[in-house]
Amino acid sequence: MPADTTSWAPTITPQQSRYWLARRTKPIGEHDRSSEGSGRTALVTGASSGIGLAWCELLAAKGFDIVPVARRLDRLNALKQRLEADWAVSVSPMTADLSRPGAPAEIYTELARRNTTVDVLVNNAGYSIAGRFIDSSWSDQEAFLRVIGLSGIELTHLLLPSMIERRWGRIVFVASIAAVMSGLPGQVLYSAGKSLVHKFSEGLAEEVERLGVHSTVSLPGTTDTDIFDNSNVTEFTDGLAMQMTMMSPIAVARQGFEASKRGDRMIVHGKHHQIGTFVMAHAPRPLRYLISGRLALKAMPELHNAAPQRC
Fold first, then answer.
1. Who has greater pLDDT, 213 or 17?
2. CATH superfamily of 29-303
3. Whole-angstrom Cα distance, residue 309 to residue 311?
4. What is the DSSP-derived secondary structure letter of residue 131?
5. Measured between alpha carbons, how far is 79 from 93 in angstroms, rounded to an integer?
6. Cα–Cα dist 189/210, whole Å
7. What is the C-alpha separation between 96 and 105, in angstroms, rounded?
8. Contact 41, 67 (CB under 8 A)
9. Could you give the CA distance from residue 170 to residue 212 in angstroms, rounded to a whole number?
10. Are 287 and 181 spatial neighbours (Cβ–Cβ below 8 Å)?
11. Residues 187, 193, 197, 199: is their CA dihedral positive or negative?
C-alpha cells in the first residue's frame, strides 16, 4: 500500500497562532498615544471586529473622535464605553447595513444631522462568499459587492467634497493582496471586488493629492480575523505556512495608519506578502493561473473534481 502523503505538513492550532501573534505584536497602549487627531473625527466601517476594530482603537489612541459603523449595536456600544474610558475621546456609534443600496446616503444624512465632519474615512467593511459563482444567488452576490466595494466608493464620493474644501483628509480602503492576484476560483467576486477598490483608490489618489487629501489602499494578506470563519474555508488557513505568515489586525492598522499619514498610495503588509505580490505581479500569466488554481484547490477541493471541458 502506498504511503499516505496527504498529511505530512505540520499544522498549528488557531490558539497557538494567536499566542505567537500576541508575542509579535504589542497591544495598543500608551506608546501609541498622541494628540495628532485632536479636534478631528474618523469614520470606520466594519468597526465591530477584526481590522476595523483595531483601526478604531488606534485612531482613538491618536486622539481622533470616532464614528464606528457596523450592524451590531451591542458591540458598538461596548466599543464606545471602552474607547471613551481609555482615551477620553468622543465615540458616536452608527448602525448600518452596507449591503443595502441606500445605506451610504443614510450615513451621510445622519452625519449632517449630528453636525459631524469626517476627516479620516476607513472603508473596511467586508466578508467573503466561498464556493462556485453559480451556487450563490445574484442578490447575495450583489449585496457582497456593495459591502466590499461600492459602499466605500459611495461614502468617499459623499465625504470627499468637504475634505477638499478644508484641504485636509485621509481615505483608506482596506482591500487584500487578492486584488493583485489572478482571479481566485471559488471566490471570484472577492478578488474582483478587491481589485476594483485597489484601482479606484490609486486613481483617486492622483486626483486629490494636490488638494490636501490622501487616498491609500491597504493590502493585507492572511490576517487573524473572522472572515474565514464566516466563509467556510477555514481549512485554507490551517496549514503551517498560512499560520506563520498570518498578521494581527493591530499590526495591519498600525502600518496602514503610518502609510496614510505619509501619503502612500498603497501598502502591502508584511515582507512575506510583499514578496508574494511582487511575484504575482511579474510572473507569467500561466504561472499566476497555476498559483491561483492551487490556492482554490487547497480551500475547496470540490472545484477540481471534474476535468475542464472544451466547447
1. 213
2. NAD(P)-binding Rossmann-like Domain (3.40.50.720)
3. 6
4. S
5. 9
6. 33
7. 11
8. yes
9. 9
10. no
11. positive
Rounded Cα distance between 59 and 82, Å, is 13
pTM: 0.83
CA distance 191 to 207: 25
Q: From the CB of residue 34, how many other CB atoms can be counted at a distance below 10 Å?
A: 10
pLDDT in tens, 150-209: 999 999 999 999 999 999 999 999 998 887 776 777 778 888 999 999 999 999 999 999
Q: Please say if the pLDDT value at position 129 is more than 60.
A: yes
Distance in angstroms (rounded) separating the CA atoms of residues 77 and 86: 14
Strands of the sheet with 266-268, listed across from one edge: 94-95, 65-70, 41-45, 120-123, 169-174, 213-219, 266-268
> Which three cell numbers, joined as nine digits, stand for 109?
444624512
Q: Please tell me the predicted confidence (pLDDT) of residue 287.
A: 65
Q: What is the mean pLDDT of the chain?
A: 83
Residues 60, 30: contact at Cβ < 8 Å?
no
**Cα gap 104→100, rounded to integer Å:** 9
Structural Rg of the chain based on CA atoms = 20
Higher pLDDT: 20 or 201? It is: 201
Domain boundaries, the chain: 29-303
State pLDDT tens for residues 40-88: 999 999 999 999 999 999 999 999 999 999 999 999 999 999 999 999 9
Cα gap 180→194, rounded to integer Å? 9
Q: What is the pLDDT at residue 291?
A: 62
Nine-digit cell string for 259? 502609510
Q: CB-hemisphere CA count at 13 Å for 72? A: 10
Residue 275 has what pLDDT?
Answer: 73
Q: Which ranges in the chain belong to alpha helices (H)?
A: 14-24, 50-61, 73-87, 103-113, 138-145, 151-166, 188-208, 240-245, 249-262, 271-282, 285-299
Residues belonging to the active site? 190
